[in-house]
Amino acid sequence: MKQSPEIKKAQDNMQPGVITVQGFIGTDHRDLIEILDEDANTVKKFGLTHRQIAGKMREFKEAGLKGLDEFIHVPPHFEVRVSTVRGGLRCPFEDHGMIPKSNIQVKNLKNNTSIDYTDMSIHFIGQHGFYQGKGSPYRTPPEKLAEVLEIHTDPDTQQ
Ligand SMILES: [Zn+2]
């Protein structure tokens, strides 16, 4: 697939120092469209959808908000901490107003894994199927999200 002008612009906005100090693309030198394609294939292979993954990330965020910046137990075997940060960021795809800046940490106590993500990660995945470039500190590989958040194919929620 070829990179459109919109995708090229989004990739420029993802460089370090444009929206955030570290940017969203890390040390990944591929075209954004290739990054999107590869992660979309992984998601498909797992029988999941971007929307389903983002939905689960949002559920953990909502459950964790009750902890008021501390880890709280989320049944059956998770610990979640949501750190709220003031302010917002614009999305590099230029489709939205400001995205909030919370940090979400989820620990899975059953399989001993954990992942950190942000409101921007949820937005990126739900709206753009973007999991960030390799080497980005906030890259959230779909296979890791599926493992930590225990996201499984559920025929009832497939669209
Ligand atoms: Zn966006």
Chain-wise SSE layout:
Blueprint: H1 5-13, H2 32-45, H3 50-65, E1 72-74, E2 78-83, E3 88-90, E4 98-100, E5 103-108, E6 113-118, H4 119-128, H5 142-148
Antiparallel strand pairs: 1-2, 2-5, 3-4, 5-6
The structure holds zinc ion (ZN).
Zinc ion binds next to helix 4.
Tags for this model:
single chain, 159 residues, alpha+beta, 4-stranded antiparallel sheet, two-stranded antiparallel ribbon, 5 helices, 17% strand, binds zinc ion
Overview of the structural elements:
The protein has helices spanning 5-13, 32-45, 50-65, 119-128, 142-148; strands spanning 72-74, 78-83, 88-90, 98-100, 103-108, 113-118. By secondary structure, it is of the alpha+beta class. It has one domain. β3 (88-90) and β4 form a beta hairpin. α3 packs antiparallel against α4 (119-128). The longest helix has 16 residues, at 50-65. It is globular, with a radius of gyration of 16 Å. The structure holds zinc ion. Zinc ion (ZN) binds next to α4.
Task: Write down the Rg.
Answer: 16 Å
Q: Structural class of the secondary elements?
A: alpha+beta
Give the mean pLDDT.
94
Give the strand line-up of the largest sheet. Answer: 1-2-5-6
Runs with pLDDT <50, length 5+? none
Report the span from N to C terminus: 25 Å
* Helix content estimate: 25-40%
SSE run: HHHEEEEEEHH
Strand fraction band? 15-25%
Ligand list? zinc ion
Shape: globular
Whole-number tally of structural domains: 1
Based on DSSP secondary structure assignment, what is the total number of beta strands? 6
Could you describe the largest sheet, including whether it forms a barrel? 4 strands, antiparallel
Number of helices: 5
